[in-house]
Amino acid sequence: MIKLFRKIRYDLMEKNKARTYFKYAIGEIVLVVIGILIALSINNWNENRKLDEKRQDYYNQLIDDLKKDKALLIDNISKTDSINSSYSVYLETFNQKGLTIDEMIHNLFKLNISASLINFNSSTFESLEKSGEIKIIPKELRNKILDLNRKQKLLEERIKGNSVIQVDFIKEYFLAIGSKSLTNRLIKHPEIEDYFKNEINRPKAILALESNMSWKIVTEKSKDFKEILLEIDNTMDLISLELNK
Questions:
Q1: pTM for the full predicted model
Q2: Does 196 score more than 70 pLDDT?
């Protein structure tokens, strides 16, 4: 093609057809410009395609992370409701007459005294943020993801702080009364059992465990998990809309 254009130019110049030559030269320039524009358009299309594929990959990764977060929250909601229900049953035992210390401790043993922690799946968000590619996400969805991540971090930190206090209560309990299995192990050893009954600081142990359970009930609420769950559902809906475009 280039050789053909060159031959035409030479022929026109040799025949002194200046006006025709200039028209041809302009036409050739126009053709070159059009070619460049087409090449740039193809290149831009290719770059946009690659960017869209990368964006789609991030969307799918975010969906996977959020599905795991949903399962985590649903599990925590179930556990929290169960703990609240068990604690209500425990409180009801005080309505009966003649409740003994041994029965009270036995009922306390039935409760879930463990400290709670929660860790959301933020690997994709962190990757987006560190690489700066969070900018390729549309503004509305980007702001939603940022807000969700902020709320998740706040909940993680709050539960972590609550667990530190719970661990202190649990330590006080075990130092005062020993492990849960101690009472069962001493049943066949009355002499040792009598010794521990005299030596174990039962009031301190009971107060520590009561404080721990009261703290759990006050600080761990299903509604906190449900609020984040709703935020996740809304965010997933926005991502799905982007995926279907």
A1: 0.75
A2: yes
